[in-house]
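hey so i finally got around to running the thing on that chain from the lab meeting. sorry it took forever, my laptop kept dying and i had to restart like 3 times. anyway pasting the input first so we r on the same page abt which one it is
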Amino acid sequence: MARPSTPLLTRERIRSAALAMVDRDGLDGLSMRRLAADLGVRAASLYGYLATKEELLTDLADEVLAGVDSSGFTAGWREGLTGWARSYREALAAHPNLVPFLAHSPGRRPQALRHADAVHGGLTGAGWPPRYATMIGASTKYLVVGAAMTSFSGGFADDVEVYVGRYPNLSQAHLLAGHEEIDRDSFELALTAFLDGLSRLYDQVARPGSEPGVRSGSEKADRSRT
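ok and heres what got predicted. didnt touch it at all, straight out
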C-alpha cells in the first residue's frame, strides 16, 4: 500500500482535537489515551509530538492567547488596558473549560509572558510606578477571568416558580437566562468603573514622561515588594 502523502498526525491536528475535547468534556475529560482514540491512533503515537499532557495544555493555552491584543498601549495606558481586557475576556470566554489552566500565573508559557511583558511595559512607559503596574495587571486579570469563567445571567433558572412568593426582589430573575448581553454589559460596567478609578489614581502616583528602565529610589523600593 502506498504511503500517505501527508502524515496522519501533526501537532496542529492534535492541538485542534484536544481543544475540542476540552471544550466538550472539560479539563478532566482530556487524557492522552482518549485523545489518541479520537484521532484514530495509539496513545504512544502522540508522544512523538508532545512529551507530556502539560506540554499539550501549554500549546492549547498559547493558541487561545494568540488572539489577545496587548498592542494598544501606544495610544495610551487606558486604551491599551481596554483593548487587552476586552480581547482577553473574549478569548477566554470562547473556551471557558480551559480557563482554570489559563488562570494560573504565566509561568513559562510564551504567549502569557509576551502579554505580561507588553502590559507591564505599556503601563510603566506611561508613568505608572512598577509596583502599581504589577497590581493593575493582576487586577485586570481578576476581572477578566471572573467574567470569563461563568455566566451571571445563565446562572438563573428560567422557571418563574423558583422565585415567585419566595424571593420578592428576584421576581424577574427567570428572564435573565435569555439575556446573554447582561454578561457583556456587566463586564463593560465593571471595566469602565475600574478604569475610571485608575484614572483618578494616575493623577496621584504616576510619573508621566519618565523613561522606562530608570527608577527613582522609591520606585526601586516599590519594585522590591512586587
